[in-house]
Amino acid sequence: MSQMSTEPDGIRPSLTRREDIPDEQWNDWRWHMRKRITNLDKAREWIRPTLLEERAIAETAGKYRWSVTPYYASLMDPYDPGCPVRQQAVPALGELLEFSGAEVDPVGDMYYRKTNRVVHKYPDRVIMLITEACPVYCRHCTRKFHTTDVDGTYFERSEGEDFSEDLRYIAGHPEIRDVLLTGGDPLSYRDGKLEEIIAGLRAIPSVEIIRIGSRFPVLLPQRITPDLCAMLARYHPVWLNTHFNHPKEITPEAERAVDRLLRHGIPVGNQTVLLRGINDEVDTMRRLMTELLRIRVRPYYLYHCDNVTGVSHFMTSIEKGWEIMEGLQGHITGFGVPQYVLTTRLGKIPIARPYHRETPDGLALRNYRGEEMLVDDSVCPLTESAAAHGFRHAPDVTENRTTATGEGAR
Ligand code: SF4
What we know:
The chain is of the alpha/beta class. The protein has two domains: about 15-355, Aldolase class I (TIM Barrel), CATH 3.20.20; about 355-390, no CATH class. Helices cover about 30% and strands about 15% of the residues. A nine-stranded mixed β-sheet has the order 1-2-3-4-5-6-7-8-9. α14 (about 280-295) crosses α15. The longest helix has 13 residues, at about 280-295. The two termini are about 40 Å apart. Mean pLDDT is about 90; it is low at about 1-5 and about 400-405. The protein binds iron/sulfur cluster (SF4). Iron/sulfur cluster binds near residues 137 and 183.
């Protein structure tokens, strides 16, 4: 599959094409990791960089890491710097601008960190930041300080790959029933090391579910091998959340990777980040969510882009997020509508506009077309005391009733 297009004059320069690479190499994730783009010369094999991109690559070099897998590079439009895949992968000068309110750690990982790698923010669950490595260093990463900043990882590298203190903390807090492995991308580890960590968690009786946050299904789906899936399936329940941001990322390779995870009993959810110039249009977001459903990935969160140092140029307004959400709710299958959240030091806060408001006469409801109806105690008890005392009068089924009459209509 090639995204190769021709220039307006019809001339196609000799950029690398998918078809130039033997299947044996293309299907081997280690080959992609070895061949990652890390400098301008390698980038020129896949795209024709603009002068601004060239400057950004040079000026961000000492500050932020850069790497792109050939697979993800093959999805970039070679000529259009506005390509939604290209913008996520190629440095921009906006990363060096200072935005007011921007922070390196707006979600407070450092504040809630209990061991080198364990962040304990919610009562019954923790995240483990097990690596700073990723196949592609996404330009919009919320943990840019950890993954992409050249000097800025959260954890002590001196501890190497010893996870015993982290596992001891989790074992010592039996209220922790859910552990999310994240980073960086946990699947950057070879299978053996990853299994060691997961087996360590599974040996803790209070840990019920293990979740993995990984963008490999998007950035390098070839990593989702039968061996990896078989290993993960030995430690069920294991869940995986990935991070598709644009319908262009849903390729046959990505679909195969998701299918493989699902066939091994690993539910796959998706977290999208709302990004200016990439997916901040209703039509794009609708196509993304419906395509995710088609490949059986459940849209889970729509994150408002955090005001992270080096990322702020991707931020939209919350008003834009509301417009997107209103373009999804009611317009596509209900479980294809993600929850719109802002990640803060207080945790994730749902910020979608409500579809109801309280009035002196009852609850005013509006549907996805903006039509309103009033619901009062005669239709549906609004308070516990109304419920306890029954309806004040016999409901008039011809008025104020929703027309839903069965499961299919809900
Ligand atoms: S793969 Fe995830 S953790 Fe890594 S840079 Fe991209 S968004 Fe950040």
